[in-house]
Amino acid sequence: MTTTPQAARGDDERDEVELSPLFARPGEATVLPKFRLPGGESLPDTAYQIVRDEAMLDGNARMNLATFVGTWMDDHANRLYVESADKNMIDKDEYPHTAAIETRCWTMLADLWHAPDPDHAIGTSTIGSSEACMLGGLALKRRWQHARRAAGKTVDAPNLVMSSAVQVCWEKFCNYWDVEARFVPLTEDHRVLDPAALAGVVYENTIGVVAIMGVTYTGMYEPVAEIAAALDEIQRTTGLDVKIHVDGASGAMIAPFLQPDLAWDFRLDRVASINTSGHKYGLVYPGLGWVVWRDAAALPDDLVFRVSYLGGDMPTFALNFSRPGAQVLLQYYVFLRLGVEGHRRVQAASRAVAMYLAQQIEAMPAFDLWNDGSDIPVFAWRLRDGHTTNWTLYDLSERLRMKGWLVPAYPMPADLTEITVQRIVVRNGFSHDLADAFLADLTAETAFLDSLEGPLPARAPQPGFHH
Predict the structure, then answer these.
(1) Is 257 inside a domain boundary?
(2) For residue 161, what are the β-bridge partners?
(3) Is the peptide bond before 287 cis (omega within 30 degrees of 0)?
(4) Same-domain pairing of 306 and 239
(5) CA–CA separation, 15 vs 249, rounded Å?
(6) In terms of domains, do 361 and 325 share one?
(7) For the chain (length 467 residues), average pLDDT per consecutive 10?
């Protein structure tokens, strides 16, 4: 049955926008349609006010502890954003200097991630990490196809190995590009991908393994070096040479500054490509992602298109065509503004707040921590066994939302779906003072729920969490 627009909107939603007397002007309508183009014009101040008034009803970004996406930049960045909003990143001929800055940014990332020769690595900006993951996966698939054909073998039924806690973009990749998703389930003992499990799921049709630096559900790092070692052993015993793509959507902009001795990047020969989100811990407004390959050999040349700019040659590899160039300039601004030491200070401040919150929540009788925020500034907790049967973390999430705090509750991934957790993401701008304000509300709402004399009505099953 086809859903009508009215049914999708809800029967009680009005189809018109009424202007208050404040906006009434001679010759201007006082009612504008919501779902059809108005027949005539309105003054810019009026149109602006209507849009602004509705947008301000969204949640307070500073109190949104659900999202990884950056919600704050300084005044100089905001000015730069407005001044460069018209730049189209794909038009490298019209905006050659923005194109050059894009190249500088991913070359900086290649260096930050210890590429053997950063100047000869290759990368690109993207709309976000989802596009970057798609590109990384496509390169793995195409390299596998080339190797199989060169050996006179079929290219049927490719598969990609990853933990069940991957972000949904990897499920999309496998669906869109006809790749079997082979998931390694999480367990209580192995809360991230278990390298020992790879021997049972990697075989000749495996195009690669995805390792996550900052699992979406909990913020934990997967052990990339141990995964690489397990694949080394698989190659020793079977001859299969399987590469790693590191999904560093969050952690690739944390680990270089807070865990510089941790080997997870191009220091490991098996790592072919890495992606990150410029709009997460890259400290830029949405939407911006990056993907970098360790060298040109890691990205099959038949996936790369070439355009001319400034009389030279610019390789380009992306799914989207026209897209904003402003965020690329904002990333370059952040790189220049903070440098290595500034990034270390900003990310350390966020992690300190996350670990402080985790410590305080762990001390509350109602909760058990899943992790403590010591990887990226993200942590999760669950309701302590036996604490109560009157309420759940979904009820607590709703109570916190009434105070303005967005703190999601959701089931863990496959084989752990009976466990429900809540998660907090600490971003730049969430201070110790705001953390104390949140803790006060968390304490009060938990006490309210604990005071209930009977159970709240049962809630419908909740969907998995995919943000």
Answers:
(1) yes
(2) 182, 209
(3) yes
(4) yes
(5) 40
(6) no
(7) 49 62 52 85 84 88 93 95 92 86 97 96 94 97 97 96 95 97 94 96 97 96 98 98 98 98 98 98 96 95 76 71 92 98 98 98 98 98 97 97 96 92 96 97 98 86 52
- Is 66 domain-assigned? no
If DSSP codes are grouped into helix, strand and coil, which group holds residue 189?
Answer: coil
Residues 54 and 188 in one domain: no
Entry field: residues in the chain: 467
E-strand stretches of 60-143: 122-126
Pairing of strands 378-383, 420-425: antiparallel
How many other CB atoms are found less than 10 A from the CB of residue 283?
Answer: 28
Q: Over the Cα atoms of the chain, what is R_g? A: 24
Token pair 């209507």: residue: 50
My answer on whether 331 and 357 are in the same domain is: no
Is position 459 within any domain?
A: no
DSSP H helices, 288-325, are none
Residue ending a domain, choose from 311, 335, 359:
335
Q: Are residues 445 and 317 in the same domain?
A: no
Separation CA 274–CA 167 (nearest Å): 15
Confidence (pTM): 0.90
Cα 363 → chain centroid: 29
Closest C-alpha among 325, 344, 319, 451 to residue 388: 451
Query: Pairing relation of β-strands 180-184 and 159-163?
Result: parallel
Domain that holds residue 159: 79-335
Say yes or no: 103 and 219 in one domain: yes
Encoded tokens for 176: 């869109």
134 and 269 both lie in a single domain: yes
**Which domain CATH number covers 296?**
3.40.640.10
Residue 65 lies in a domain: no
Q: Quick one: pLDDT at residue 293?
A: 97
Of 335, 364, 382, the last residue of a domain is 335
Give the burial string for 357-390 (b: 16+ CB within 10 Å, else e).
bbeebeebebbebbbbbbbbbbbbbbbeeeeeee
Structure tokens at 413: 């991934």
Domain count, the chain: 3
The residue written with tokens 């086809």 in the block is 2
Query: Which residue in 410, 446, 406 sits closest to 62, CA to CA?
Result: 406
Distance CA 148, CA 205 (A): 9
